């Protein structure tokens, strides 16, 4: 007589949603978890964040957090990944006609930070990276491999890497002062004023003459 195989399913698996469920529903659950995780990482840091607290904030079972993201490290990696639209829009702005590129990059930055859902994601990523080395390393990799590379890749002189770094430093600085810290007059200016003040500086970094690098001091005569 053939031995009948047990069809019992472990309790933990019975509590999980089927992988073949509606993609929209699975995406909504994962996004709720990510939203809760971003808030926790930004305010409590990595050490102060627990999967239990994230699950409670997202109103899901804790098992779902590991189901979608494997571990707390996996959750952090997903939480600090900029949305694809953020990178795509920055790449598109960096390929605008050269004479208009400073304005395009400035307006793109403002649009990203003034889009409510995206702004919250960007703010939480920056705040998390500010005190979590792993998050900072990942964010640095994204900026270097995508944004800086895109800006530099659309320039054709020997100083393109330096120019891209100067552009990034200006745009990030404006975003931090205006949208993250909300300090100084820059936070009070309207959008058109910000473009008027910032875009020419971005354009100068892209196309203006940069100061010559200082020559190293000559070695003293023997």
Q: What tags apply to this protein structure?
A:
222 residues; 67% helix; single chain; disordered N terminus; Tetracycline Repressor, domain 2; mainly alpha; 11 helices; Arc Repressor Mutant, subunit A; 0% strand
Count of helix runs: 11
User: Hey, roughly how much beta strand do the residues contain?
Assistant: under 5%
Report on the biggest sheet. none
List segments where confidence is low: pLDDT < 50 over at least 5 consecutive residues.
Answer: 1-22
Task: Name the structural class.
Answer: mainly alpha
- Give the CATH H-level superfamily of the largest domain: Tetracycline Repressor, domain 2
- Whole-Å distance between the termini? 99 Å
The helicity comes to: 55-70%
Rg measurement, Å: 23 Å
Helix and strand succession?
HHHHHHHHHHH
- Top CATH class of the largest domain: Mainly Alpha
Count of β-strands? 0
- CATH T-level fold name of the largest domain: Tetracycline Repressor, domain 2
At CATH's second level, what is the architecture of the largest domain?
Orthogonal Bundle
Tell me the count of domains: 2
Instruction: Give the overall average pLDDT.
Output: 84
Shape: globular
């Amino acid at each position: 007589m053939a031995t009948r195989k047990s069809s019992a399913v472990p309790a933990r698996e019975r509590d999980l949603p089927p992988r073949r469920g509606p993609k929209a529903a699975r995406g909504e659950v994962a996004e709720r978890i990510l939203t809760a995780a971003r808030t926790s990482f930004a305010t409590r840091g990595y050490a102060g964040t627990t999967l239990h607290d994230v699950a409670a904030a997202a109103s899901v079972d804790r098992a779902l957090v590991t189901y979608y993201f494997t571990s707390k490290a996996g959750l952090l990696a997903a939480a600090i990944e900029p949305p694809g639209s953020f990178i795509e829009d920055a790449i598109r702005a960096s390929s605008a006609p050269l004479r208009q590129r400073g304005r395009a990059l400035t307006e793109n930055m403002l649009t990203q930070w003034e889009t409510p859902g995206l702004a919250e994601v960007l703010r939480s990523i920056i705040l998390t990276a500010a005190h979590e080395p792993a998050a900072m390393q990942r964010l640095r990799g994204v900026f270097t491999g995508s944004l800086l590379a895109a800006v530099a890749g659309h320039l054709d002189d020997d100083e393109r890497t330096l120019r891209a770094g100067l552009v990034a430093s200006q745009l990030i600085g404006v975003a931090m002062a205006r949208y993250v810290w909300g300090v100084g007059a820059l936070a009070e200016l309207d959008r058109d004023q910000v473009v008027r003040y910032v875009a020419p500086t971005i354009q100068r970094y892209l196309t203006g003459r940069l100061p010559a690098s200082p020559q190293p001091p000559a070695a003293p005569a023997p």
